[in-house]
Amino acid sequence: MRNITVAHSPDADDIFMYYAIKFGWVSAPDTNFQNIALDIETLNQKALNNIYDICAISFALYPKIRDEYALLRTAVSFGEGYGPKLIKQKNKTLKRHFKVALSGEHTTNALLFRIVYPDAKIVYKNFLEIEDAVIQGEVDAGVLIHESILDFDENLEVERELWDVWRELCKEDLPLPLGGMAIRRSIPLNQAIQYEALLTKAVQVAHDNQKLLSKMLLQRGLIRVDAQTLETYLSLYANAKSISMDEAQLSAVDKLFAIGYDHGFYDAKITARDLMIPTEYESIRNS
User: Could you say which of 3.40.190.10, 3.40.220.10, 3.10.20.740, 1.10.760.10 is the CATH number of the domain covering 2-78+177-285?
Assistant: First the structure.
C-alpha cells in the first residue's frame, strides 16, 4: 500500500474538491491518501521545501518549484470578474508608503500587489487575521482572499479589486489564476498520471454531487461558513471550470508567469503546458 500525502488549504473550495476522496467516493487501488489542511502560504513554503507528494499552491509560486513539481490540470481556482480585494477603513486615504497585510509572500495576490504598489510596506499574516488587523489599525489596508471577500466588516471598504489590477497587467480577456495543485516529479510517471486522473475524477464527482457533499461538510463542521455562503463561494472557486484547465485558463497561467518574469520575480519565462504531466504517455505505452 502506497501512502501519498495530499496537502490543501482549509478554505471551502479546497475541502470541497478533496473530500470525495476522504469520504471514499473515489479511490485508487493500493494507495492510501493522507490529507493535510494548512493555510495557503504555509503550503507554498512546504512546496518550496518539497515536503508533500501532492500540494495545493498559489499559481504565482509555481515557477519557483518547477524543477521538483509538475503542475496539475485539476482542482484549480480562477477569478472571472472577481478575486482578492484590497480593503481599508472607510474614508481612509492611503498614502504612498501605506502599510498593508498580505496572506503570504508567494501568493498570486502578493505578486500582483507588489507590481502595482512597489512602495507599500508589506507585512504577512494568516489570511484569517487580515480583516481584524485593518479594523484595529495595525495596518492601513489588507488584501482579503478566500471566503473573506464575501462578507467583511461594515466599517471597511474596497480600495481596489485585484481583478482590476489583473486586467490592467494582463491586457487580455483571461481569467485570474489563483490556486492550483502540483505533484512531485519523483513520483513514477505512470503513478502520477493515475493520481491526476483520480483527483480530476474527485473534483468531477464533487461538482456533480454538490448539494449532498456540501450538506455532509456542513454537518461535520468542516466548513467555516453557512450553507448559503458556501453555495456562493463554490460557484466562484469550485465550479465546472475547476475540474480540468481549459485553453483560456492555461493561457492565463502563462500570462501570469510572463508578467512575473517581466517584472523580475522569476528567473525564466515558462509555459504551463511544458511543465505538466505528459498524459499522452499512458496511451503511447498501451499502444
Answer: 3.40.190.10
CB 104 within 8 A of CB 110: yes
Question: CA-CA distance, 57 to 181, in Å (whole number)?
Answer: 6
CATH number among 3.40.50.360, 3.20.20.70, 3.40.190.10, 3.40.50.300, domain 85-170:
3.40.190.10
- DSSP, collapsed to helix, strand or coil, labels residue 7 as strand
Phi, psi of 54 (to 5 degrees): -130, 130
Best CA proximity match to 133, nearest among 163, 88, 171: 88
CA distance 225 to 11: 9
The dihedral through the CA atoms of 8, 14, 20, 26 has a sign that is negative
Q: The pTM is what? A: 0.92
Q: Which three cell numbers stand for residue 67?
A: 524543477
User: What's the full length of the chain, in residues?
Assistant: 287
Check pLDDT > 50 for residue 159: yes
> Which tens digit of pLDDT belongs to each residue from 168-186?
999 999 999 999 999 999 9
What are the tens digits of pLDDT across the range 222-235? Answer: 877 788 888 887 88
Q: Which of 283, 200, 202, 210 is nearest to 245 (CA)?
A: 200
